[in-house]
Amino acid sequence: MKRILRLMLTAAGPYAPQFTTTLRISVAAAFVQAAAYAAFIPLLAALAHDPVRTGRAWLWIGVLAALVTVEGILRVREAAFTYDHWHLVTQATRLRLGRTLRSMPQQELARRAAGDLTSVVGANATMAATAISALSTLFVQLVTVPAVLGVVVVALNWRLGLVLVVATLAALPFVRQVQKRSNAGFRQVNEADAAASDRIVEYVQGLPVLKATGQAGADSPRLMPVLTHQHGAQAAANRSAAMPVACAQLVVQLAVVALAAVGAGLVLDARLSVATLVAVVVTAARFAEPLSLAATMTKLFELSEAALSRVGDVLQVRPLPVAPGSTEPRNFDIRFESVDFTYAGQSETTLEGVDFAVPERSLTALVGPSGSGKTTITKLMARFADPQSGVIRLGGLDVSTLDPDDLLRHISIVFQDVYLFDDTIRANIALARPDATEAEIEAAARAANVHDFVDRLPKRYDTRVGEIGSALSGGERQRISIARAILKDAPVVLLDEPTAALDTESEVVVQQAIDKLVAGKTVVVIAHRLSTVVGADQILVVDGGRITQRGTHTELLADAGGRYARMWSAQLAARDWHLPLHHKQ
Length: 585
Fold this sequence. Notes:
Blueprint: H1 2-12, H2 16-38, H3 40-48, H4 54-103, H5 106-111, H6 114-156, H7 158-205, H8 207-212, H9 224-240, H10 242-268, H11 274-315, E1 334-341, E2 351-358, E3 363-367, H12 374-381, E4 389-394, E5 397-398, H13 404-408, E6 411-414, H14 425-429, H15 438-447, H16 451-455, H17 474-488, E7 492-496, H18 504-518, E8 522-526, E9 538-543, E10 546-551, H19 553-558, H20 563-575
Parallel strand pairs: 3-8, 3-9, 6-7, 7-8
Antiparallel strand pairs: 1-2, 1-4, 4-5, 9-10
Helix pairs in contact: 1-6, 1-11, 2-4, 2-6, 3-4, 3-11, 4-6, 6-7, 6-11, 7-9, 7-10, 7-11, 10-11, 15-17, 17-18
């Protein structure tokens, strides 16, 4: 319970003080409830006395009424948190998760599957809020009421109390088994749910490809294995705890029978009155009911614990540290100084001893084979991660002294794979500057060669682009992303081969848009087509995580045996490739 309580306090966030107060109220209400049940013992004793002790009976009826009234008031205050704060806790938890995801290092974010994070922010956050608002108070009641009633029975007759103590000790191993099996089972269910969610997202997005390859439908090999695994995990979690729950409930019920038997023996020996025995048996039933229910509810508590753990796991991810002394860069040159970098979970170094400078208002191209480290270099420039050793500077400042959000205000990034949100063209362009005027948005669109095709659409800038921009062509999506970058007007521009996947006509239009974007900026471009960067101020050849060559296009071609010259020759040869005119059978 300490572990779950700690997770609850973490998930409660800003509402932790109200949650703590509610738990105290719940404990008080449980004590009052137990006291009300205990009041039946002297009440029945007064009524069973010969003659009836009327005065004592009315006294205990009054006490019982007072206790019930106090419990009702406390329960109303307890319920206020459940009904007034449940949705607030849910909202606050999701907002905190959103802030954590926003500040999470990109390397850590990329490690987590989209479906997994969807489950955490969706179902797990809801379950965590439910656990905080409702299950926590239920747990307090299920534990506190039997404990108090057990003490009352022990005080009344130690022999009867001993029966309850022994029964409780006998039931605990079964309850622990339920906890252990349910905890492991529901963790597996959560992982299976996350995997299924992620694969469903992939299935929907990749449906055209799956149809084309005959892999769509009920027996899709991309979807069915994870759904089968999910079903198996759910069934296993339900089955695993069934026997311990039944055993725990059986022990509790047998305890009531044993209590009645022992009590009957004491009555026959004239060491206990019949009225007291009846009162004790009624009290024991109230003792047994919460314990029996607790054995069943343990599965739900462990399900909550699994959800709380997943929410807590995300909330505990720390953002990239910001060293003291943060200031604004005065210029926008970039420098790498002996940078080494290895991705988390990998033993092979991605970058080793990378050292170069990008002068302000210049164009630097990164070229080299796939997997050589080019994209990693640009990610480190944007501080999506920090190197294990070495320093990266912007305007002379170590980027580790800059908050990632502040750093990214100075950088525009145009990716090869454009992501547009299912919103209007206007909203997607204005993403970089939500306060931009209509005139500024249109000016950026004109500069990026967006305005002409938008002007032909029925709703113009209010046209929705579809999920991930599916209603537009690749070239149109890329031009919108460039318009977004133009509107941002950042002094540093990073381009990850923005024309690689475009046809020749689209490439020309997009290249014209890029020319307007990079004018007067510090530009770093990843290039696969060397013909697009022959005019770069410097070209860095990246191979095996190192800078193996640097210079202008002419200087690098002069080294006939160098990597760049070989790449240039290979691309020239590829231009002459063509399909055979006649296909021989």
